[in-house]
Amino acid sequence: MAVSPDPADVTRRVEAYLASHPDIQAVFATGTAGANPLINYFDEKDLWSKYELYSYDLDPEILQSVADGKMGFGINGQQYLMGDLPVTLLVQNATHGLMVQNDIDTGPLFIDTPEKALAVQTLSWEGTR
User: Fold this and answer.
1) Domain 7-121: CATH class, spelled out
2) Which of 34, 54, 85, 91 has the fewest Cβ atoms within 10 Å of its own Cβ atom?
3) What is the pLDDT of residues 43-78, one digit of tens each?
C-alpha cells in the first residue's frame, strides 16, 4: 500500500487497511516516515498484541520500540558499506592494484533484540547510524 510522507496520512491509510483486512497479522513499514507514526498509533490504540510491526531503516524511535520489546525488528541497510565501500575498493584496485582478499559483510543488519537496539541507540542519536 502506498503512503505519503504525512504522518497523519500514514496512520489513516494503515488504520483503514487493517480495518478492511481483518486477517492481517503484521505491518512492514518501508522506512522511518512510515514506522514512526505507526509506533505512535500502535501505542495509542494498544495494538502491539494484535499486530507485529517491522521496518526498514533505524532511528531512535524505532530502536526504542525494539528495545522495549514492541517492534519485531528494524533493518539497518548500512548504506556506507553497501554503497561507498565498493567504490573505494574499486578505486584502490584501479589506482594501486589492491583488492580485498576476504569477504566483507555489508549487511543488512537486523536489529531484532532489545540488546542490539540499546547497543546502537546512542549511535543513532548521534547521527552515526
Assistant:
1) alpha beta
2) 91
3) 999 999 999 999 988 889 999 999 999 999 999 877
